[in-house]
Amino acid sequence: MKISFIRAGIVLVIASAFTWQSIGAWQDSQTTDEAVHLSAGRSYWQTGDYRLNPEHPALFKLWAALPLVLTPEAKLQTDTPIWRSGNQWTIGAEYLYTGPAQARYGGRLLLWLGRFPMIAIWLGLVVTLAVWSWRRWGPWPALAVTAVIAYDPNFLGHGHLVTNDVATSFAYLGTWLVLWRFINRPSWSTLGWFSLVFAAAQLTKYSAVILWLLVPFVLALARWYRRPGLTWRWCWRALLALVVVTSVATWTVYGWRVNRIDRDPRITQLWQERQDLVSRDAVDTVPPLIQKFIAWSDPATATGRMFERVQRFSIPGYWYWRGFFSTTSHNYYGHAAYLLGQASTAGWWYYFPVALFVKTPILLLVSVLSLVIINAKRFYRRLRQRAWSRLVPFDFWMLGFPPLIFLGWSMTSHINIGVRHVFPVYVFFPLAVGSLLAAIGRRWPRVRSAVAVTVAVLTVSVATLAWPHTIGYYNGLIGGTAQGHRYVLDSNLDWNQDIWRLRRFLDTQRFPEVHLALFGSIPTETIFPERLNVLGDQEVAAGVRPTGVVVISAGQLYNLDGPFSWLRPLTPRWRIGSSINVYDFR
Question: Which are the contacts of 16, defined by CB distance < 8 A and separation ≥ 6?
Answer without folding.
Answer: none
